[in-house]
UniProtKB/TrEMBL annotation:
CDD domains: HDc. This is Deoxyguanosinetriphosphate triphosphohydrolase-like protein. Keywords: Hydrolase. Belongs to the dGTPase family. Type 2 subfamily. Residues 65-201 form the HD domain. Residues 1-27 are annotated as: Disordered. It comes from Roseateles saccharophilus (Pseudomonas saccharophila).
Amino acid sequence: MRGTRLACAADPARSRGRRLPEPAAPTRSVFQRDRDRIIHSTAFRRLVYKTQVFLNHEGDLFRTRLTHSLEVAQLGRSIARSLRLEEDLVEAVALAHDLGHTPFGHAGQDVLDDCMRAHGGFEHNLQSLRVVDRLEQRYPDFDGLNLCFETREGILKHCSRRHAELIEAGEPGGIATRFLHGGQPSLEAQLCNLADEVAYNAHDVDDGVRSGLIALEQLLEVELVREHWRSALDAHPTLTGKRLLFETIRRMLSAQVYDIIDATAVGLAQASPADVDAVRLCEKPLVRFSPAMREASTALKRFLFANLYRHPQVRSTRARAEEVLRDLFNAYTADVTQLPPDFAERPDRERACADYIAGMTDRFAIREHQRLTGKSLF
């Protein structure tokens, strides 16, 4: 059962509101309403065909942005319930945090940032905010989804100072203020940041082994994996193969979840924030790993970077993905009539092209590239 919400947790009854005020919904809180709008958005549905590490054509069982977002939401809600935070806000932020991701994972973001270097650059977190603030076109009275301040604050996980200044100019004292003057977002946003990291590490271990690019024996170099592999075998001495891998990952996840709950409880007791605004004034996040778990998680990330993300097969696929998106950007900016009318008619040609490409799924980008160039890279 849910306990009483912490005084310093976000409270839907005290939300800082939407940019365009709306009447309250009769049966849902403002954060539940945000979650529902996100789930029904076009950008959310597209996440099913946007990839993490492995591209969509490489197999049906690898994670996508959609399954990742669902895993982050599950982890976030589970931890939020134990910490007595606002679960619906955690779920809304978790489901929306990757809406601005490009096709082909981080390769797509890097290409678009390079292509847009002379036109303001490209940041996927900022793009997620653009999606919910402007690019979704579902309602008669406003562009975007008109989400609450707290949900938008959580979506904007990272932001360059230059972009923060632009946001602040149009929204003084708003969601970008902390990037200019220090401070933190709500506890719920902090939790989503950490749940994102936990989910990433776990499913990239799973997908990496499933793909054959890394072996479980390699992973045993990492203390966090080795510790829970041993505990799985201690409890189940005959366990092998996939069941051993899954049990190891399950135990890793549980250990990280319990560590976050315990370390955050200590941090909250020490800081004793009176309300959510006091949380925002803190210099460091209050939702955290213990120092030992932070070190263990970082070591696992370093291993995955060196052995999975930089694997020759992944790099080869990435190079082709980069070529697809660079060619698309060049083709659209050279001839905007190749864009749909609502993008072609915009005065900001390069940004319109970046918005259109960022919204693509992997397989649509591949099809468009073949249509425009005649090349088949995948």
